[in-house]
Amino acid sequence: MVEFTVEQTTRPTSAEQRAALMADPKFGRVFTDHMAVIRYKDGQGWYDAKIIPRQPLQIDPASTVLHYGQEIFEGLKAYRGKDGAVSLFRPEANAARFVASARRLSMAELPEELFLGAIKALLKVDRDWVPAEAEKSLYLRPFMISNEVFLGVKRANEYLFIVLASPVGGYFSGNGSIPVWVSEHYTRAAIGGTGEAKCGGNYASSLLPQQEASDNGCSQVLFLDAKERRFIDEMGGMNVMFVRKDGSVVTPPLGGTILRGITRDSILKLGRHMGLTMVEEPLAIEDVFKAAATGDITEAFACGTAAVISPIGEFRRKAGSVAFGDGKTAGPVTMKLRNALCGLQRGEEADPFGWVHPVAL
User: Fold this and answer.
1) Domain co-membership, 164 together with 202
2) How confident is the prediction along the chain (361 residues), in pLDDT tens digits per residue?
3) Best CA proximity match to 145, nearest among 69, 58, 44, 43
4) Angle between helices 332-345 and 262-273 (to 10 degrees)
5) Rounded to an integer, what distance in angstroms lies between the CA atom of residue 3 and that of residue 80?
6) Do 142 and 265 fall into the same domain?
7) Keyword annotations for this protein (predicted)?
8) Domain limits at 225?
9) What distance in Å separates the CA atoms of residue 250 and residue 315, rounded to the nearest whole number?
10) Do residue 61 and residue 112 come from a single domain?
């Protein structure tokens, strides 16, 4: 087992400064004092595990990540309960997905216990950065890059794994539901591609359609399948679900192009536990527009680690738009699921699944 050495920052953020930064943190803009770092080299394995002051990286301009894009990441959160204790939500699922992403991009596979160990070691040092407020949490960003110095197209033999931590509030600004732009020209992923891997390239390719969404007054973009441009795939950075008038919840099935969202999986299992009908089936965009217009689909929401569960008010595209419910407020099923999920994540509700992972600090 790799042991972490700790190098404390010589310029720690004061309690007063930290409180001011955490009062209204913009998502991904505020960071804690330290980061976890582990190195890998073929023939040596994982080594030099450290908690060090957060600082700029020094990498060679010929590092392979800069030229061939071997890079993966994860996203999860640490929560502070009413009793002051800190916990993680399903971190082992993130660790397993990180391994799967590494395998798809032909990168070194980080053992799951080392992934979890790096997060816990960082939390022990930066424990005071975990917010106590109900709508806030400490967002954790484990990522890995290839850093072999070599200009050739091959699997790299050196890697750098890092964990950053950032106190956050809500992902979307403002209240109520969000408008979503349906991209009819760009696609996110195809069968056999990297759609199931959590790699930066998937998100880089979504930025142009995301700008198109913004130009049309929307907060997010929705992608259709790459083959027929007919079926709903997922959104730019999260999964999507719909509520039918009978109260059932439906989402597109996994099939190689949709990220295996941990929040998505949690909602499906939690909903079934609550007695809701949870369905995974293909959803044609035309059918969704018609069903929303007739009231056969009454609610829609985005779901992901950052977004948690965020209501969608309407879909927009060049041919027109359609609202879900009144187009402004979250529906009852959406809020029922959101309240149940948030209560579970924060340790305020019973955990029948064993998903809440206490962290001894």
Assistant:
1) no
2) 678 999 999 999 999 999 999 999 989 999 999 999 999 999 999 999 999 999 999 999 999 999 999 999 999 999 999 999 999 999 999 999 999 999 999 999 999 999 999 999 999 999 999 999 988 999 999 999 999 999 999 999 999 999 999 999 877 655 579 999 999 999 999 999 999 999 999 999 999 999 999 999 999 999 999 999 999 999 998 999 999 999 999 999 999 999 999 999 999 999 999 999 999 999 999 999 999 999 999 999 999 998 899 999 999 999 999 999 999 989 999 999 999 999 999 999 999 999 999 999 8
3) 69
4) 110
5) 26
6) no
7) Amino-acid biosynthesis, Aminotransferase, Branched-chain amino acid biosynthesis, Pyridoxal phosphate, Transferase
8) 178-345
9) 16
10) yes
124 burial type by CB count under 10 A (0-12 exposed, 13-18 middle, 19+ buried): middle
DSSP string, 317-341: ETTEEEESTTSSS--HHHHHHHHHH
3-state secondary structure of 53: strand
> Based on the domain organization, do 207 and 134 belong to the same domain?
no
Residue 354 token pair = 């064993």
Quick check: 224 and 232 in contact, CB under 8 A?
yes
For β-strands 76-80 and 34-41, DSSP reports them as unpaired
Quote the distance between the C-alpha of residue 79 and its chain's center.
Answer: 15
Position 7, amino acid: E
User: Do the bridges between strand 178-182 and strand 220-224 make them parallel or antiparallel, or are there none, so unpaired?
Assistant: parallel
The tokens of 42 are what?
Answer: 């073929």
* Token couple for 23: 């009062």
Q: Which of 214, 212, 277, 210 is nearest to 244 (CA)?
A: 277
Instruction: Look at the chain and report how many structural domains it folds into.
Output: 2
